[in-house]
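I'll show a sample.
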Amino acid sequence: MREAEKSADLAAANAANQIVRDAKLAVLEAQARVVVARAQQELLDASASEVPRLVERQKTQLLLSDFLDDRSRRLRNKAAIASETISILSQHALETGAAGEPSSEGDPSPSPNDINDDWLNIFSDHAERASSAQLQSLWARILAGEVRTPGSFSLPTLRFVAELDREIAVLFEKYVQYVVSDSIPRRQEIEGEPLQELLALEEAGLISNVGMPLHRTYSATDGKHLSIIQSKSLIFITLSNSNNIVYSISPLTRVGRELKSILPDFDGAVALIRLAKLIETSASSIELASASVAEGQDLAWRPVRKLWSGGP
């Protein structure tokens, strides 16, 4: 009996000790969690104070990287434009036979030193942003033209090219092929799409007098015949009743004329054929001719085809 009681007492004591140990362990675990929580909060507080500095450093590094990349890109753009400018000037010298020829004292050859410093600074600011080959070629042609003839390109033209809108550029190329004597021949009254297109070019600052067109007059010296030349083409006109021809025009602005000068040469016949359509009612015949130059001979005109035949 006593043995059984002793066993029961021992079991009870062991159970009590286990409960005490479990309680102490629970207290220790709770304390540990508190310590860990405090440590985590302190870490978060410390990190929070460091974040702005880390972010600022990262921003600074990104800005420096962007600046260096941008500077490098602009230098590459300027180098590409300079290289193409030299090629254009060299080709022009070969075509005109100017390479290696000393200039006469009364007609000094132009040089980059003749270009206005302010113009060159503004040109550089605009041109260095041109990353596409197409725009770089455009800037190179402008610089080459200014080197050959200082003052050829105004500051408004530089600004226009820097802000060039692709749709306007395409529209200008469409109409510039019809230009005769720096003006777009047209009918007095226009409407629909042609009117909207010309208004867009006027708003862009490339042409003028769309709403109120000007007029161009050609008079026959002999009272019956006259000719109009565009590039290497010409139209011979035999008048019907009057001794002159009058048609409406929308002139190119200075920016339009300067921009046209750096575009590829257009076939003058295209413009003259279109003009013939506008003036045919005032003529009894219109004939297209092209320039023909034989070695050692003066300029001659070779008939191509008759564009109009009618009237009295």
In short: Residues 63 and 79 are 24 Å apart (CA to CA). Residues 2-96 form the longest helix (95 residues).
